[in-house]
Automatic annotation (TrEMBL):
<feature type="signal peptide">
    <location>
        <begin position="1"/>
        <end position="26"/>
    </location>
</feature>
<dbReference type="InterPro" id="IPR042186">
    <property type="entry name" value="FimD_plug_dom"/>
</dbReference>
<protein>
    <recommendedName>
        <fullName>Fimbrial biogenesis outer membrane usher protein</fullName>
    </recommendedName>
</protein>
<dbReference type="InterPro" id="IPR000015">
    <property type="entry name" value="Fimb_usher"/>
</dbReference>
<keyword id="KW-0732">Signal</keyword>
C-alpha cells in the first residue's frame, strides 16, 4: 500500500524521471562522481523531499526521507540509513561507515562506495536500493520452527485487574431403575482474580440437597509467575508434580516451580540443532527433517545460523537443500539422536513444595500439623546427557532418588534409582532402566523399539502411603513396531512380572496390525495373551473405522473377551458458536446390552450438553436402567470496566466490545470459514474464553452492518496472555475522520509534492499520521480524531498548520484552503 500511495502522490516527479537511469555507485568506483549527471532526476528547479522505501536488494528495510537536489545529487539522512542497515551489516563494517561519514547529517551514495556498497535511486519505482557484498554482511539467525520467535510489533499487555467465574452445572433424570426421578444438581465453581502479576484462584463443588456437606472447597492458592527467570511461586493448596518414583501428595504451603512447557511453551527445551552456513548468492533453502520438509526459506546472501530443528524422538536425519538464483544446488546433511525427556545444555527444570499435609476431605482440604516436603531438580549437562535428583519427606517416610537420560547413536538410555526409609517398615530401593530407539529407513518409514526393566524392594515407598505395597519383585517388558508401507503396520509388545511371596506371576503379550484400506477406511487387529491370578486367556479384537465425509465416522468392533460387539457413530460440525458434536453407541455382550448417546452444543454464552445411558437384559431385552444427564456451563468475566457472559474460561480470556462509533453494530470475534468464537450481540460484549497463557495469539474481528465510513481500528489484536489474565478489546475508535484540503504556503502558493506528518496535540505520544500533497497542494489525512492536530510539512519553509476537528465530526472533514499557522517547527 505504501508503495502504491507513493507512486500516486509523486506521479509528477516519476513521470519526468521515467527516462532517467538509476544513479548508482559501483563497489570499485572510488573516485567522486561527476558534478553534473547527464540525465536529470529532478527537473523541477527546486529541491524535492520524498519519503521512499529503502530496500536491501528485494528486501524491504524501512522508509527513509531523501532529498533530490537541484544539482541532481541524492542526499540521505545518515542516522536513519545506518539504523536500517544495523540489522544487515557486519558490526565492523557499520562502525567503519559511521567513522567515515562527514560531520554533516546528510550523505550521498558516493559515501558508501569505499565500503563496497552500491546505492541506487530508482525513479520509476520511487525507491532506494542497496546492494551489499556478502562479506560485508553480518551473521543472522534463522529459526526453522516458529517457536522461540521474538514478538515483533505491537503486542497488547493484559489488564492490571481482571476476574472470572465459571459455573458448570449438571443434574440427572432417572427414568428407569433405582430412585427414579430428578436427582440433586451438582455445580463445579472455579475462578480467578488477577491483580497486577498476582493471581488468586480457587475451585469448589456445590451440591445442594445432597448427602453430607453441600459445599466442598477443592483448593485455593495465590500464584505469581516470575517470567524473567521462568519460575512460578505458589502459596496455599499446592498442585504438586513429581519425577521418578515420587508420589504427588496433598500439601498446603509454598512452592517454587519451573516448567518450560507451562511458563514458556514457545521455547524448545530439548537440545537444539545448531549449524552455520554461508550463502554467496540469494537462495532458496529447504529444510527437511527425517524426510519431511519443515520449512522453505528465501534468503539473501549472508552468513546464517540455522537453529531450532523440530526434532522427532529418535535418530534424526537433517538435510538442507540449497538452490541459489543461478540454479546451482548444494546439499548439507547431519544426523543427531535426541529424546523428548532431554533438556538442552544449561537448561534446568525443578519443583519444590514445602508445607503441611492437607488431604482432601468431604468439606475441603484438611490441614494437619504434619510437615511435608517434595522436590526435584533436572539439568541438561550437555545436549546428550540430562541428569536429575529428587527428594520427598514427611514424618513417616523419607525418599531420595536420581535420574539420568543419555542420547547415543544407537538409542536413548534412561535410568532412575531411589531409596526410601519407612518408619516401622524399614528401608527400600527401586530401580528402573529404559531404552528407546527410532529407526529411520530410506523409504521414509520407521521402526520403534522400547525396552524397560523395573525392580522395587518389598519395603520401598514414597510419602503419603499408609503401608508399602509392591506386589512384584521385578517387571520387564518391551515393544517393537514396524511400518511396512504408509498403509500397513504391525507391532508386538509384552510384559512379565515376577510375583512377590504368594502373589502370582503375571504375563501378557500382544500382536497388533493395522491396514488403511482406503483413505476413508482403516482396519485394526489385535491378538492377546494374558496370564494372571484368574489363569490364562487368549483373545482377539478387531475394529473397522469408516469416515463418512469430512465430519463424521462410524466404527464397528468386536472383542472375543466377553463376546462384546459395538457399533458407534460420531460427528463434529463447525467451530465456535453454533458448533456441536454427537456420539452414539450400541453395544451387546454376554453380560447384557446397552445404548448411549452424548451431545454437546456450543452457544455464544454457554456450553450445553445432554447424555443418555440405557442398559438392557440380554440382547436389548427388558430395560434395566435408563438415565439422562443435562449439563450447562457458562462464565462471567470482568475487566476494563466491562462485564461479559460467555462460555467457560479455561485459562485467560478477552472481553470484546464495540466502540460507541459503531452504534451498536454486532462484532464477530475470530471469524473463519468454519465459524466464529463469539459475538457481542444484544448484550454488547463478547467473551473469548480460550486464550492460553504465554502463547501468542492473533485475534481478528469483523463487524456486521457497520455504519458507512466507520473506522474499526486495526481489525486484529495481538495478545500475549499472562497466567489467568484478562483483556478488554475495544473495536473501533474516534480516529475515523479524514481531512481533505489544499495547502498553501505563506506566499499563497501550493505546497506541492511534499510529505509531512500530523500529530494530535493532546496525545503527542501517538504515532503521527503521514500527509502527502500532490502538484496542486491537495492532501488527504486519514485517521484523525476530534481535537487539534499540528501538521508539519517538509517543504523549504518547514510549514506548520493547525487542524481543528470538531467533537461532532465524523467521516470526511473538508477544510478548503489552509495556510501556515506562523509557528516554527
Amino acid at each position: 500500500m505504501l508503495r502504491k500511495r507513493l507512486l500516486l502522490i509523486h506521479v509528477g516527479v516519476s513521470l519526468l524521471a521515467l527516462a532517467t537511469p538509476s544513479l548508482s555507485v559501483a563497489a570499485d568506483q572510488l573516485e567522486p562522481p561527476v558534478a553534473a549527471p547527464t540525465r536529470m532526476v529532478n527537473p523541477t528547479g527546486r529541491d524535492v523531499v520524498l519519503t521512499v522505501p529503502m530496500n536491501d536488494g528485494a528486501t524491504y528495510l524501512g522508509d527513509v526521507p531523501i532529498t533530490l537536489g537541484t544539482d541532481q545529487a541524492i542526499r540521505l539522512p545518515a542516522d536513519r540509513v545506518l539504523q536500517l542497515l544495523s540489522e544487515v551489516l557486519a558490526p565492523d563494517v557499520l562502525q567503519a561507515l559511521r567513522a567515515s561519514f562527514p560531520s554533516s547529517s546528510m550523505v550521498t551514495p558516493a559515501d558508501f562506495a569505499p565500503s563496497g556498497i552500491q546505492v541506487a535511486y530508482d525513479p520509476q519505482r520511487i525507491e532506494l536500493v542497496f546492494t551489499i557484498p556478502v562479506e560485508r554482511r553480518g551473521s543472522r539467525s534463522v529459526a526453522v520452527t516458529s517457536l522461540d520467535q521474538e514478538r515483533l510489533g505491537e503486542v497488547l499487555t493484559p489488564l492490571d485487574a481482571s476476574a472470572y467465574l465459571n459455573v458448570r452445572g449438571s443434574f440427572d433424570l432417572v427414568e428407569d431403575g433405582f430412585d427414579e426421578g430428578f436427582e440433586n444438581p451438582n455445580m463445579l465453581l472455579d475462578g480467578a482474580v488477577r491483580l497486577g502479576g498476582v493471581v488468586a484462584e480457587s475451585d469448589a463443588i456445590w451440591s445442594p440437597g445432597g448427602f453430607g456437606p453441600d459445599f466442598q472447597r477443592l483448593g485455593s492458592r495465590l500464584v505469581y509467575d516470575d517470567t524473567g527467570n521462568i519460575m512460578r511461586w505458589t502459596a496455599g493448596d499446592l498442585e504438586t508434580t513429581g519425577r521418578g518414583f515420587q508420589s504427588v501428595p496433598d500439601i498446603a504451603g509454598i512452592s517454587l516451580y519451573r516448567s518450560y512447557g507451562v511458563l514458556n511453551p514457545q521455547q524448545i527445551i530439548r537440545p537444539r540443532g545448531d549449524r552455520s552456513f554461508r550463502l554467496e548468492r540469494a537462495s532458496i533453502v529447504e529444510v527437511l527433517v527425517n524426510g519431511q520438509q519443515v520449512r522453505r526459506l528465501q534468503l539473501a546472501p549472508g552468513n546464517y545460523d540455522l537453529r531450532d530443528f523440530p526434532f522427532a524422538q529418535g535418530a534424526n536425519d537433517i538435510r538442507l537443500n540449497v538452490l541459489d538464483d543461478t540454479g546451482r544446488t548444494e546439499i548439507l546433511r547431519f544426523n543427531v539422536f535426541l529424546d523428548q525427556t532431554q533438556l538442552a545444555k544449561g537448561l534446568s527444570e525443578f519443583g519444590l513444595y514445602a508445607g503441611i499435609r492437607a488431604p482432601l476431605r468431604r468439606s475441603g482440604p484438611h490441614y494437619t500439623d504434619d510437615p511435608m516436603f517434595s522436590g526435584y531438580y533436572r539439568r541438561g549437562l550437555s545436549d546428550y546427557v540430562t541428569v536429575g535428583v529428587n527428594l520427598q519427606a514427611d514424618k513417616d517416610v523419607q525418599m531420595g532418588g536420581v535420574e539420568a537420560v543419555m542420547g547415543t547413536s544407537i538409542g536413548t538410555f534412561g535410568l532412575q534409582a531411589a531409596v526410601s526409609h519407612f518408619d516401622g517398615a524399614g528401608n527400600g530401593v527401586a530401580l528402573l532402566g529404559t531404552f528407546q530407539r527410532l529407526i529411520q529407513r530410506g523409504d521414509g518409514q520407521s521402526d520403534t523399539l522400547n525396552l524397560f526393566a523395573e525392580h522395587r524392594s518389598k519395603n520401598f515407598a514414597p510419602i503419603s502411603f499408609f503401608l508399602p505395597d509392591n506386589p512384584f519383585e521385578f517387571e520387564v517388558g518391551g515393544g517393537y513396531s514396524h511400518a511396512f508401507t504408509d498403509r500397513v503396520y504391525a507391532g508386538v509388545d509384552g510384559r512379565y512380572g515376577k510375583g512377590r511371596g504368594a502373589k502370582p506371576d503375571v504375563a501378557s503379550a500382544r500382536l497388533t496390525a493395522g491396514w488403511r484400506i482406503t483413505d476413508a477406511a482403516t482396519l485394526n487387529l489385535e491378538g492377546r495373551y494374558i496370564k494372571d491370578s484368574q489363569g490364562d486367556e487368549v483373545s482377539a479384537f478387531a475394529s473397522l473405522t469408516v469416515r463418512l465425509g469430512r465430519y463424521s465416522s462410524v466404527r464397528g468392533e468386536f472383542d472375543t473377551r466377553g463376546d462384546r460387539a459395538r457399533v458407534s457413530y460420531q460427528t463434529l460440525r463447525g467451530s465456535g458458536v453454533g458448533s456441536y458434536n454427537v456420539t452414539a453407541d450400541a453395544e451387546t455382550s454376554r453380560f447384557g446390552s446397552g445404548l448411549s448417546v452424548n451431545a454437546n452444543y456450543f452457544a455464544n454464552r454457554a456450553e450445553l450438553g445432554f447424555s443418555h445411558y440405557g442398559s438392557f437384559n440380554g440382547r436389548f431385552g427388558d430395560s434395566v436402567s435408563q438415565r439422562s444427564n443435562f449439563r450447562l456451563g457458562t462464565s462471567i468475566a470482568v475487566g476494563g470496566g466491562a462485564v461479559s457472559i460467555g462460555r467457560p474460561i479455561y485459562d485467560s480470556f478477552a472481553i470484546v466490545r464495540p466502540h460507541r462509533s459503531l452504534k451498536g453494530a454486532n462484532v464477530v470475534v475470530d471469524p473463519t470459514t468454519f465459524g466464529y468464537v463469539a459475538e457481542t450481540g444484544a448484550l454488547g460484549t463478547a467473551t473469548m474464553p480460550g486464550l492460553s497463557s504465554y502463547a501468542e495469539r492473533t485475534v481478528p474481528v469483523d463487524i456486521e452492518n457497520a455504519p458507512a465510513g466507520t473506522d474499526i481500528g486495526q481489525g486484529t489484536f495481538r495478545l500475549f496472555p499472562g497466567y489467568r489474565s484478562g483483556y478488554m478489546l475495544e473495536v473501533g475508535s474516534d480516529y475515523n475522520v479524514t481531512a481533505l484540503g489544499t495547502m498553501l504556503n505563506a506566499d499563497g502558493e501550493p505546497v506541492a509534492l511534499v510529505s509531512g506528518s500530523a500529530r494530535e496535540i493532546a496525545h503527542p505520544e501517538r504515532a503521527p499520521v503521514i500527509v502527502f500533497t500532490n502538484r496542486q497542494g491537495r492532501f488527504g489525512a486519514a485517521g484523525l480524531a476530534p481535537g487539534k492536530w499540528r501538521v508539519e510539512m517538509l517543504d523549504e519553509a518547514r510549514s506548520v498548520y493547525i487542524i481543528d476537528v470538531a467533537p461532532e465530526t465524523q467521516g470526511v472533514l473538508r477544510l478548503g484552503e489552509i495556510r501556515p499557522s506562523g509557528e516554527n517547527q
